[in-house]
Amino acid sequence: MDHDHQELVVCYNALAVLINEGEAAPAVNGALARLVDHTKKHFQQEEALMEREGYPEQASHNAEHRMLLNLVAVLAERTQQASDQPVNVNRFAFLGSWLRNHILDADKDLAQFVLRFQPAICRT
Ligand SMILES: [Fe+2]
Ligand SMILES: [Fe+2]
Hints:
CATH topology: Four Helix Bundle (Hemerythrin (Met), subunit A)
Bound molecules: fe (ii) ion
Oligomer: single chain
Structural class: mainly alpha
């Protein structure tokens, strides 16, 4: 899960660089599509894990995933439609904060639930 999250952050950073450099919409949409791809795969794995583990917060966690995918779909469509205009940086700002908040909050709760019965490992 941590490795997946790192990958998502790398994809997001690549997208943010393009936006900050004022790249045209097609390049931005390409990077956005790659981020969406990784994100969908990651969500599928996380949702399968929740299913397997009988995670009690699955419904709300899934809802957060769906909400992000819906918002990103709208974002991609708008960027596509206005492909001759500079990309609106503010529209993308939420993506970064969503990722950060979700990983630090909902995903952390899930990880703690999955690891709840594992004995603590003494590393010394
Ligand atoms: Fe998640
Ligand atoms: Fe996650």
